[in-house]
Specification:
The chain is mainly β. The chain is built from no helices and 13 strands.
């Protein structure tokens, strides 16, 4: 059975940092791209970053580029999202997700996860950034 479990969320002041972790099990980890998504109250879920399963290529949406860093440890089946210079608008529930394939579905700087590209979701971890 596939499991994705996020941890590391919390409350920080603007300008602070957090590192989220996603622990995966139940599938061949390095065969799949893993993405980080977030959903703020009243807003749609958005993909913010992805790391491929083939060559560890990384992708970011413009709003987090230069502040967030995604990485993976294939030996431990872990994916991390290091978040620096956090802003109040980063407040959201953050989810990790497994793509069906090894490549990240980024098109024109947008994380296009439509059409059933996501095979599994974690339960989410809350990140709150106060001003």
């Amino acid at each position: 059975e596939v499991h994705l479990v996020e941890s590391g969320g919390g409350q920080v002041q603007a300008g602070g940092s957090l590192r989220l972790s996603c622990a995966a099990s139940g599938f061949t980890f390095d065969d799949h791209a893993i993405g980080w998504f977030r959903q703020a109250p009243g807003k749609e879920r958005e993909g913010v970053s992805c790391i491929s399963g083939s060559d560890d290529s990384t992708y970011y949406v413009d709003s987090v580029k230069g502040r967030f860093t995604i990485s993976r440890d294939n030996a431990k089946s872990l994916v991390y999202l290091q978040m620096n210079s956090l802003k109040p608008e980063d407040t959201a529930v953050y989810y990790c997700a497994r793509d069906w394939g090894a490549s990240c579905p980024f098109t024109g700087g947008t994380y296009d996860y439509s059409g059933g590209k996501i095979a599994s979701w974690g339960q989410g971890t809350q990140v709150t950034v106060s001003s």
